[in-house]
Amino acid sequence: MASKPRKDVVKNDRRILRAAGDLIRIDPDNLTIAAVAERAGLSVPTVYRYYSSAEVLRGRYMAEVDQQIRDYSHECDTAGTALFDDVLSEWGRIIEVYGPGLVQLRSRSGFLARLNGGDPTMQMLREAWERPIRRVLRANDIDGSYFEGALFLLNMMFDPRELLDLTARGNSMEQTIGIMKTAYLGAIRAWRDQDTPTV
């Protein structure tokens, strides 16, 4: 049986990730281990014991956020298509906290290329949204073969950059999620009605 990490190890890791998130939001291009150590109140060697480079730390920060939405989705017991609404609302709350940093960390590779290439972040995203999206597809009489296309569309329409752009125009995050949900459902229903080829 694996032993649990020591409390000081967990505490330090959280301090490092919190400091990294703060710096990513402020100046993502200049994220360094030294800057993270200073902001976290830890020594540089201590931070290096957890993360071998700033790039590794960036990846861990992204995974931490993706894990939050995946875990919420898995633990949510909401019935029917309301599950999709609940997971979307949680995504909105996550964006309000982490969004500015996530905007700076978006990959240059295409979504489907990463999804089909086995990118761990994309796998986590799939795990978070597969159950909610498949419920929406079934409720709208849309064949399950459209799932990857629906996931692709969700990733595009609920991108942190675009959600924050809409909230900057005076909409609350709740209103923004509602606006984009209506557009999303309209898009996948149009695919069904036009017998669009699957992505």
UniProtKB/TrEMBL annotation:
Keywords: DNA-binding
Stretches assigned to the HTH tetR-type domain: 10-69
PANTHER family assigned: HTH-TYPE TRANSCRIPTIONAL REGULATOR RUTR (PTHR30055), POSSIBLE TRANSCRIPTIONAL REGULATORY PROTEIN (PROBABLY TETR-FAMILY) (PTHR30055:SF209)
Organism, as annotated: Mycetocola reblochoni
DNA-binding region: 32-51
Protein name: TetR/AcrR family transcriptional regulator
InterPro entries, per database record: Homeodomain-like_sf, HTH-type_TetR-like_transc_reg, HTH_TetR
One Gene Ontology MF term: transcription cis-regulatory region binding
